[in-house]
Request: fold
Amino acid sequence: MSADRHDPRSPLRRRLLAGAAASTLRLSASASAMALLAAGLLGGCAGARPADRRAAAAPPTAPPAGLDALVRRAMAATGARGLALALIEQGEVVFTGAWGVRNAAGEPLRTDAVIYGASLTKAAFGYLVLQLVEAGRLELDQPLADRLRGPLPGDEDPALVRRYTRFAGLADDDRWRRLTARHLLTHSGGFANFHWLEPDRRLRIHFEPGSRYAYSGDGLMLLQYVLEQGLGLDLEAEMQRRLFQPAGLLRSSLRWREDFRPHVADGFDRDGRPRPHDERSRVRAAGSLDTTPADMARLAAHCLRGDGLGPALRAEWTRPQLPITTASQFPTLQPERSPPPHPRLAAGLGMLAFDGPQGPGFYKGGHDDVTANTWVGLEAGRRSVLILSNDVRAEPAFPALVAAALGETGVPWAWEYPGMGFWKEG
Reply:
């Protein structure tokens, strides 16, 4: 499949390249091209423009021939009202485009619109933690308890509970003292996704840390607690200084900013009802990122290249660390299967790693009731596709859109979205 993807004779390449010579979708920095854009000759791909490394000038590019029409068909079939897509080749952003609307008023979705990143936050957080490891502030396999000045807090400080999570349930289980950053980034700390999913709403350890995978947002919140309360760091400040600013992100934060308001994208739920954007005031490693399609494209390229991180730790980010043996991502605390239903799937550090027809790859999803995002990357050629949608109904189209952009990758879509009927052409 890898050779086929690069072979101009392949059906996929022929489909995407067909008619390229006659394409009227090519963007230009010239006034005439901007007039074409204003006139709508991009076929409703509002805000489509080249994204680039560190926001520097770069030759404009158009969407691959056929992509615009494919996105439109996918949105029509799923009912999704808004969707943005970015392509990265050789670690450089080659296209960022947006389709549809950003709110119930019908204002066009643009590549600079503020969209909720959801659990894509976890991927960025994993990269940041590796930067802290490289800086000597943390060790991946050192017990996190060694970095704290005392025991985990109980319920006596409601502000801490609200800021992080409810740690009181761990007081009588010394296994928490053996937890490491690697355990929490690979979702093998033994926790449910969040404490409020427990019958008594108290976080607890369900299995020996490091022994298996069970997705946990609260595991990431525990790691954030250690960074902030143990190391004295400010997560938002560190994310901006070490990652977002060097990557050239212009409108991204783990906390709502008032300057986002004119650009914000509201969401649409599974019934198509518009919902206002949640102005999140708490910094949460588990998922509070507000960002834009253009910014996330820059971040994806930055991380693919390994900027700000040495080669060994960049490899750790997406290296298969722990085999995943469950039938699906959710519910998190489900029985293990033997043999594993997806033997080529494993946990990375904030990412998921897989081995597919084009070799090693990685991905991360992120969604809530109105948001649907996915980030898929291939190590070969440092290639990636990023999809952000302000309409959760876009999810069934993700496999087809990713395949059109990258070829068959091997992403275990049925594991990520169990029971979902995926959209296919024809």
Remarks:
- Residues 397 and 423 are 5 Å apart (CA to CA).
- The radius of gyration is 21 Å.
